[in-house]
Each structure stands twice: as structure tokens, then as C-alpha cells.
Design goal:
Layout lengths: L2 H12 L4 H9 L3 H19 L2 E4 L1 E6 L25 H13 L4 E6 L7 H14 L4 E5 L5 H10 L3 E3 L7 H7 L6 H13 L3 E8 L6 H14 L3 E6 L16 H14 L9 H6 L3 H6 L5 E2 L6 H4 L15 H13 L4 E3 L6 H8 L1
Parallel strand pairs: 1-8, 1-9, 2-3, 3-4, 4-5, 5-6, 6-7
Helix pairs in contact: 1-3, 2-9, 3-10, 5-6
Bound molecules: 5'-deoxyadenosine (5AD).
Amino acid sequence: MNKLSDIAEKLVVQHHLTAEEYAFLIKNRDEKTAAFLAENARSVRESIYGKDVYVRGLIEFSNYCRNDCYYCGIRRSNDNARRYRLTAEDILACCEEGYALGYRTFVLQSGEDMTFTAEKMADLVASIKARFPDCAITLSVGEREKEVYALWKQAGADRYLLRHETANDAHYRLLHPQELSLKHRKQCLADLKELGYQVGAGFMVSPPGQTPELLAEDMVYLEELAPEMVGLGPFIPQKDTPFREEAAGTLELTIFMLSVVRLALPTVLLPATTALGTIDPQGREKGMLAGANVCMPNLSPMSVRAKYALYDNKVSLGEEGAQAIEDLKKRMESIGYHVVTARGDHASHVLASEK
Ligand code: 5AD
């Protein structure tokens, strides 16, 4: 046995590594280790979630954003972004279409658009919940006050996605302007957890400045936070951002990190992201085979799709809702997995609600 295989073995058995071990594993990874981790990640995933693939209907309801993150195409200072926001009626129509297609989770995602006030969002959540009581609602609308998160929970929101982006202060500074802070981001995640949301943290693979040591810090933070979901996809440059010339993250490292996350957090809900499908035509299938168990096809109206351009060359821009789910079902069947019509809660929350 050498040090690399010892560490990989430890991750499989103990679901935990130290920061130094994570860094060593990531820095020295080879094909054999990646295959070993993927195989074990898949078997852990199948022991908990079987061969089911949970789907979430993603509704990108506004691309207005008050923030100016250096990597993101809908950053406030991007004058080339064509801005849009959907009305509550538009959003309900997306849910209606999604429900008929079998979706039982809707993810409402937007930039930090403050015209969607706390009350307006709460009303929106309540009306979706009233219309589709058997569905879960996931919000992904950025940083807000704890009271606001509480109001939305009260209104019926079940889950919240807020990637931490990086667990290192200096790296956070490199990716974000001064007015944003990792401390506040972490506070939001802690608040969301405390309020009883199923919480999703996460990060991009290979944004500028990322190193194995920094990825190790992300893993240590994830172990500590123990989120129910982790969003993880490759960084992809967007032409109107300061990072336009930077290289995209690779399929290989993204897949490797998916396996590492699955093994560190066995019950985690782990999407094979659109960004992964964008850098490789078989990206989502490969992600599934490395431990992912969730997919989030786009349910946004066709007319606004291209405008929600966080990065360039995003896939599925031309696919209607019905076509997207059919395509996904085929892709998943081709690897022996099955898209299911279910809320797809985190394992711990299913058990809690059955008690
Ligand atoms: N490439 C990949 N992912 C991106 N995101 C934002 N910009 C990019 C990009 N250029 C991710 C961020 C954010 C999520 C909604 O999308 O991690 O949290």
C-alpha cells in the first residue's frame, strides 16, 4: 500500500479525512484512484438512494442581481446582460407544466433581485405550495436576513441552495468584490440550517486561484456544515466577466470531486449539474456514475433561457420542458438509472417525516 491508496481507502471506510489528507488525495490523484473512489461512491449512493435519479424543475425567474461576482455572467456591472424577470403568473405556469411532466420539486433561482421583496417571495412560495401541496420548493435567491429566511420557511419553502463558493477568506476575496464576505455567506448557511431547511452549499471546480489545498478546505467545511445538498460544477468562463480569459474546470477533476463529496457525506443530495453537461456531452451520465443522484433540468420559459447566462455555451437552451425530461430519462436508462417522480428529500428528512 502507498500513501495515496491508504488515504483513498480511509475516505471509503471512515467518510472523513483531515485537510492534509484531502489535499494529498486531490493533488496526487491518478486514474486508478479516481476509478476506485467512483466505484465506491456509486455503491454508497446506491445503498441509500438505489438507482433512482431525483429531478428538480429549475425556474430561473430573474437575472437581475445586486452583486458583482467576478465569475458570473449576470453580475450587476455586465451591461451586455439582457435583464428579465418573470411574473408570479409566469412562474406558476412553469410549475404547472413541470407538474404535468412529473416534477415534484421546483427550484426557484434568481440573481439577488430585491424587487422580489421578502413578502412578495413569501406570497409566491405560498401560492405554489397551495397549488401543488405534494411538491417541495427549493429557493436559490442568495443572501438575506434570517427573519426573511424564516418567513419563507413559514410560507412553505423546504430547501435552500446557497453555494459557499470557497471556504477560504483570501480566495473568497479573489472571486468577489469587497462588499461580499465569506463570514456572512457562512452565517446565512448556518441560519438556514437552524431554521430547518434542507440546505445546499457548494463550489465551482477550478475557478481562478483554486488549489488542492483550497479544495481540501472546502471539504473540511462541508464535513463540518453537513449540508443536505452540495452543488458542484466546473467553472466555465463567461465572455463579459473579468474571468473571461480563464480556463474552464475539467471533467476529470469535477468527477473526482463528486466522488469525494459522496464519500464524505454519504446521504448527500448531489446533482450532476448543467455546467457538467456543458463541458462534456456525457457529463451528467458520468457524474451519476461517480456518485451524483440528482438532475435539475431547466423549466424556464424558452424566451428567457439564453438570458440566464452565468457562463458561456450553456447546454439545453433549445429544449422544451417535455423534450428535456424525455432526453434525461433516456440518458439515465442508458446507464441503468431511472428518473423518478418524487419529492426526493434527503434521506434524514424522509426518515424524520415517517416517524
Ligand atoms: N461557471 C460555473 N458556475 C458558475 N456559477 C456562477 N458563475 C459561474 C461560471 N462562470 C455558479 C456559482 C453560483 C451558481 C448559481 O452558479 O457557483 O453559486
